[in-house]
């Protein structure tokens, strides 16, 4: 009896590690993997929402919002920009072994009353923020009571936007910080080759405004490649010194250490729910994002999981740092949306991007049409908040 228990326990311990092991060694054998995940999801109480499949659901987007939501960037309104196929809006994410709780805007508004929700990261983070605003706005009868605190319009040109939900005394904020760290002029004595540096040991100065938020959703990754850094004369700096040989991976890893140390020193573990979203996949065929890559031929999700690429290095670093922060009363999570997003090669604006885009301009196969894939990310966010009883004890920490 005792021995059996030991076997069962070691199986439980081995299972996650073998899944990890297999995903490195045999990244392509997804069917095998998903069977394991299904098994795993039944063992623990918590279900793994990151693995599943897209199912056709005629009723799906209507329950959330539509393209007339006033908070949508013109670049994400694909139908209004001429996209004719409508299928991309009708797929619902179905995790193996459980269902995602139905998104309830009024419930989330109530839980977030008097609070602040902060999104920080790159433009895909803004994509998710806009989706979140529209989902939440469904719980408000009069959308004129939702406004930007400085009266700014929602455009991609603003670095900071805060939408106030008047009735709930709540704000949902967006901060553009593609590298999370400070990017600026190099030190005076550096070589002419260096036009800008990313200061890996200093979090963006916007971070002073993140303190005290109830929910924080970070993302980073798309700018961490050599095209957008070293090849455009942007090098990495630490302690006033530019390091001319540090590569992008190592720099990204160090930026996450800076982020972790900032969070542990500046956030209140009892109050804040912290998320770091995983990498959002791009789908460029026959070219790169700036070299004629395309995705407008895609009208359906990928249905062959074997064709899915391996885990991006960003996720490996992010999930590692997040795990190091999961102690005491900290509520820090890796929001793993990479697999579900990589299947959605049909979900991008492609050539139906913002009005006024010249005909020969590159297609947008990195952001997502809205309503669309980021709605699912927000559903998973909501599910996690629910499972941790967000808003019941944390709204008034002083009096409670
Ligand atoms: C993210 O989820 C996918 C699908 O479940 C999984 O294969 C992958 O290992 C996860 N990534 C991390 C870093 O946990
Ligand atoms: C949504 O939440 C509100 C407030 O908590 C509740 O009254 C309502 O029944 C919920 N709606 C659904 C469809 O679950
Ligand atoms: C609004 O929320 C803030 C905390 O974010 C709180 O200090 C203030 O008292 C609240 N105002 C009202 C009218 O409840
Ligand atoms: C909606 O809110 C705005 C701003 O508070 C107000 O001027 C308007 O009268 C409201 N409309 C309705 C139908 O209540
Ligand atoms: C530039 O100045 C910093 C700080 O004074 C010093 O540590 C560094 O070695 C100098 N770098 C070069 C290339 O001279
Ligand atoms: C630059 O960073 C690399 C790690 O990527 C390190 O090995 C090297 O020592 C650093 N160079 C200097 C001059 O600090
Ligand atoms: C990519 O190019 C090849 C060869 O020119 C062509 O056969 C294929 O249809 C193209 N794929 C897409 C998605 O445009
Ligand atoms: C909320 O606070 C009450 C009283 O302090 C406590 O009994 C309960 O377990 C707390 N709930 C959560 C989810 O922390």
UniProtKB/TrEMBL annotation:
<feature type="transmembrane region" description="Helical">
    <location>
        <begin position="7"/>
        <end position="26"/>
    </location>
</feature>
<dbReference type="InterPro" id="IPR029962">
    <property type="entry name" value="TBL"/>
</dbReference>
<dbReference type="Pfam" id="PF13839">
    <property type="entry name" value="PC-Esterase"/>
</dbReference>
<keyword id="KW-0472">Membrane</keyword>
<comment type="similarity">
    <text>Belongs to the PC-esterase family. TBL subfamily.</text>
</comment>
<protein>
    <recommendedName>
        <fullName>Trichome birefringence-like N-terminal domain-containing protein</fullName>
    </recommendedName>
</protein>
<keyword id="KW-0735">Signal-anchor</keyword>
<dbReference type="GO" id="GO:0005794">
    <property type="term" value="C:Golgi apparatus"/>
</dbReference>
<dbReference type="InterPro" id="IPR025846">
    <property type="entry name" value="TBL_N"/>
</dbReference>
<keyword id="KW-1133">Transmembrane helix</keyword>
<dbReference type="InterPro" id="IPR026057">
    <property type="entry name" value="TBL_C"/>
</dbReference>
<keyword id="KW-0812">Transmembrane</keyword>
<dbReference type="GO" id="GO:0016413">
    <property type="term" value="F:O-acetyltransferase activity"/>
</dbReference>
<dbReference type="Pfam" id="PF14416">
    <property type="entry name" value="PMR5N"/>
</dbReference>
<feature type="domain" description="Trichome birefringence-like C-terminal">
    <location>
        <begin position="100"/>
        <end position="383"/>
    </location>
</feature>
<feature type="domain" description="Trichome birefringence-like N-terminal">
    <location>
        <begin position="45"/>
        <end position="99"/>
    </location>
</feature>
<dbReference type="GO" id="GO:0016020">
    <property type="term" value="C:membrane"/>
</dbReference>
């Amino acid at each position: 009896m005792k021995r059996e228990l030991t076997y069962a326990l070691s199986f439980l311990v081995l299972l996650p590690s073998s899944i990890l092991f297999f995903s490195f060694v045999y990244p392509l054998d997804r069917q095998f993997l998903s069977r394991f995940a299904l098994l795993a999801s039944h063992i623990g109480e918590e279900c793994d929402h990151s693995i599943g499949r897209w199912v056709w659901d005629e009723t799906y987007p209507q329950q959330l919002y539509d393209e007339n939501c006033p908070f949508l960037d013109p670049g994400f309104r694909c139908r209004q920009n001429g996209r004719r196929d409508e299928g991309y809006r009708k797929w619902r994410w179905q995790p193996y072994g459980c269902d995602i709780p139905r998104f309830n805007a009024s419930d989330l508004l109530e839980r977030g009353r008097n609070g602040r929700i902060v999104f920080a990261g790159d433009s895909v983070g803004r994509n998710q923020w806009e989706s979140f605003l529209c989902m939440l706005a469904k719980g408000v009868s009069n959308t004129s009571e939702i406004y930007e605190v400085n009266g700014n319009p929602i455009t991609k040109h603003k670095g900071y936007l805060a939408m106030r939900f008047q009735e709930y005394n709540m704000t949902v904020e967006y901060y553009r910080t593609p590298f999370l760290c400070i990017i600026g002029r190099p030190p005076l004595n550096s070589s002419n080759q260096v036009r800008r540096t990313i200061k890996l040991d200093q979090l963006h100065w916007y971070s002073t405004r993140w303190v005290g938020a109830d929910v924080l959703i970070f993302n980073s990754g798309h700018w961490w490649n050599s095209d957008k850094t070293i090849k455009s004369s942007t090098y990495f700096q630490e302690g006033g010194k530019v390091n001319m040989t540090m590569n992008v991976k190592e720099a990204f890893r160090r930026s996450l250490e800076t982020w972790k140390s900032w969070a542990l020193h500046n956030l209140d573990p009892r109050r804040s729910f912290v998320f770091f979203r995983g990498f959002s996949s791009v789908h460029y065929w026959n070219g790169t994002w700036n070299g004629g890559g395309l995705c407008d031929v895609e009208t359906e999700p990928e249905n062959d999981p074997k064709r899915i690429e391996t885990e991006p290095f960003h996720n490996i670093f992010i999930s590692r740092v997040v795990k190091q922060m999961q102690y005491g009363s900290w509520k820090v999570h890796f929001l793993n949306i990479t697999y579900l997003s990589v299947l959605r090669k049909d979900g991008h604006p492609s050539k139906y991007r913002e009005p006024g885009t010249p005909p020969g301009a590159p297609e947008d196969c990195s952001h997502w049409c809205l309503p669309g894939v980021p709605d699912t990310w927000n559903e998973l966010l909501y599910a996690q908040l629910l499972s941790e009883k967000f808003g019941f004890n944390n709204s008034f920490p002083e009096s409670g």
